[in-house]
Amino acid sequence: MKIWIDLDNTPHVPFFKPIIRELERRGHTVAITARDAFQVCEMAERLGVSYTKVGRHYGKNSFLKVWGLGLRSAQLVPFVMQERPALALSHGSRAQILLSNLLRIPTVLIMDYEHVQTPPLVRPRWEIVPDALVRENLHCKTKERIRTYSGIKEDVYAAEFKPDAGLAQELQLNGSQIVATVRPPANEAHYHNPESDKLFAEFMNWICETPGIKAVLLPRNKGQEAQMRQQSPHWFKQSNVVIPKKAVDGLNLLWHSDLVVSGGGTMNREAAALGIPVYSIFRGKTGAVDRQLESEGRLTMIQSVAEVKTKIALKPRLKHHSPEARPRKALQDIIHHVEEILRAECRQAVRLTTVPSATNV
Fold first, then answer.
1. What is the largest CA-CA distance in the chain?
2. Global confidence as pTM
3. Residues 88, 146 within the same domain
4. DSSP per-residue string spanning 118-143
5. Would residue 322 count as lying in a domain?
């Protein structure tokens, strides 16, 4: 069967790479589109994921978001008409789901944050979610169309990670400094809470005043980087704050870090999957996955400016051992569910197209 995967955001690229490999290994054809947003295309090229580029990001203005959704859905039409996929699969591509719903292509949404706003026209036919979300209010109101997988989505690709020392040399990270990887809040997202910006600024000001700390700062796009350089030029006067010149392997960067402070979900959970101290400055609605990680002691939530200096520990960690390479069930669970959904949709299509025989009339 042909499966269409749409890469809508940067974290989708490493997540879907092993999924694409496993689907193709089982005989399926995978057609891939990518949105020109954040580091999606750059990351896909670096990881060797072939794609067709369709559409772009339209910023945080609500009107432009809606306009961009409709426009990209229309831009995807020629690709879909040519490929004619049996199933549309994504980790939150509204444009893919909208178009597929209009064309009656079955949609599967893999997602791990239950508070995303989803208008009726972009609700998926099927959902695959972590076990932690099974009791949450999900998009599919029919429980029979919801499947769950073990662990967290970052387990899908973290299990295959192998450290590369070349990145430390590229970013001039040396063993004498404490390295903090910092991800600013997603200030263009509809779920953004300005409180996250205050926590981010407090942490950045703190580490810029603290000797022996090096921050690897990962802006979400060029616009956010320009804004930070304009509003907080003192962060960049010294060499203790570095912004990579190109997209980097996120897991590799985290592995060479002593701690992670992030205003987004994926990087927090990647760090948790690798066992690295991680502090969340995300102040939107806390998702079930993050609550689970916090209860397990794998993630620390920072909820006020005062907690920045009292909860975040600026200390080195041991990096001599390799990441745990144990098999994780998340990947196989997801592949199993995708194939199961394909079979269910094929059976449904056969039933709808079956013509009663003359003896039954």
1. 87
2. 0.85
3. yes
4. --GGG--SEEEEEGGGTTS--S-SSG
5. no
